[in-house]
Specification:
Length: about 190
């Protein structure tokens, strides 16, 4: 399926604001992919479709996951909004005809992050956080950092997400903590080696 067709389908299935966010993530993923020698076309598709699972309203996420036979972990059961990532992988395959594993991985990890993410998945994760319709203190600096150093930007992004989740008494998915720790351990070892 061509990107234009995907855009049409997505536009018809999401509220206007969510669709505009998806377009912005697609654009930003393109920008970051170019900076890091990542397949631009794949990054654009993964960015565009990252929230396609949002066509299910979050209050129906648990029922939908059960209906589709999607495995639900304890954290997702108690914070079903997280499931839009797994639902997104389902719709990307069934509705948008995506078979490419790296595109699907970008969608799967865009909410929690995870250790061992591909460069493309990092690009999508960061594009979701740093696209121009978002605003938070320090966003411009993080946007620049994401173009220079994907891993450093991921480290800051995890820290910011974890702080936010703590602030609002939300659950922290183990994949997020594992992703954060993976980079923290690397940095610690580098410091020790100095
Ligand atoms: Fe999302
Ligand atoms: Fe998003």
């Amino acid at each position: 399926m061509e990107l234009v067709q995907m855009k049409e389908l997505l536009k018809a299935s999401l509220p206007v604001k969510r669709y505009e966010h998806s377009l912005a993530v697609c654009e930003t993923a393109r920008e970051f992919a170019l900076a890091h020698d990542v397949d631009v076309a794949k990054a654009e598709i993964s960015g565009l479709l990252h929230d396609c699972g949002r066509e299910v309203s979050s209050r129906d996420n648990l029922d939908k996951a059960a209906e589709l036979g999607i495995e639900v972990d304890k954290i997702e059961r108690n914070q079903p909004i997280l499931l839009h990532a797994k639902l997104g992988v389902y719709y990307a395959q069934k509705k948008y005809g995506i078979t490419d594993k790296t595109i699907l991985e970008g969608i799967l990890y865009h909410t929690t992050g995870a250790p061992h993410m591909s460069k493309l998945a990092k690009v999508v994760y960061l594009a979701d956080l740093l696209e121009p319709t978002r605003s938070f203190p320090g966003i411009e600096e993080m946007h620049e950092l994401a173009k220079m150093d994907l891993e450093k930007a991921m480290f800051k992004a995890y820290a910011q997400t974890i702080r936010y989740l703590l602030e609002y008494d939300l659950l922290i998915h183990p994949s997020c903590i594992a992703g954060y720790n993976e980079i923290a351990i690397k940095y610690k070892k580098k410091k020790l080696a100095r």
